[in-house]
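testing teh design pipeline on a random one, pls ignore if ur not involved
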C-alpha cells in the first residue's frame, strides 16, 4: 500500500470549509482532483497533514486560525486609482463592495484576485489577502490513489 510522501502524485476528493462550515471547495460531488504534493496546489499546512497517510484514507483535519492561509496582513489592503482600473480594464466598469477583480501579475504570466472593500470618489480599496487568511478551516480528504 502506498503512503503519501513529498512529490507523490495524488488522486483525491477534498473539501475545504471556513469557520461557518460553508464549502469553499468541494470535489466530493464531482470528479476527483489530481495533484503533485509539493507543487503548491495546496497550502503547505494542508500538504503536511497528508504526509504519511496511506492510500484509501478518509479523514478530516481542523487547521487553526492562520495555519492554512496565514494571518491577515494589513499591508495587503491597497488603494487603486479608478483611472488605473479604467486603463487596465473596461472604462465603463462600475465597482461595488464585495466585487472580486482579477489583476495580472507583474510578469504577465498569471493572475491574482483582490476584493473591493471600499469605493471612494476616485479610488477603490482592495483586499489582496486570501479570503480565509486568519480564519480556522476544516480540510476533509479521501485519498483515492497515491503514486
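output:
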Amino acid at each position: 500500500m502506498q503512503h503519501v510522501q513529498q512529490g507523490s502524485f495524488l488522486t483525491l476528493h477534498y473539501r475545504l470549509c471556513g469557520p461557518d462550515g460553508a464549502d469553499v471547495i468541494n470535489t466530493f460531488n464531482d470528479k476527483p482532483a489530481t495533484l503533485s504534493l509539493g507543487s503548491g496546489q495546496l497550502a503547505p499546512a494542508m500538504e503536511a497533514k497528508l504526509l504519511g497517510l496511506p492510500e484509501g484514507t478518509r479523514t478530516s483535519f481542523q487547521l487553526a486560525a492562520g495555519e492554512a492561509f496565514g494571518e491577515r496582513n494589513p499591508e495587503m489592503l491597497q488603494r487603486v486609482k479608478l483611472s488605473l482600473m479604467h486603463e487596465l480594464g473596461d472604462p465603463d466598469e462600475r465597482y461595488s463592495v464585495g466585487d472580486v477583480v482579477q489583476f495580472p501579475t507583474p510578469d504577465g504570466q498569471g493572475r491574482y484576485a483582490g476584493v473591493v472593500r471600499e469605493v471612494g470618489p476616485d479610488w477603490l480599496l482592495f483586499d489582496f489577502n486570501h479570503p480565509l487568511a486568519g480564519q480556522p478551516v476544516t480540510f476533509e480528504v479521501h485519498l483515492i490513489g497515491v503514486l
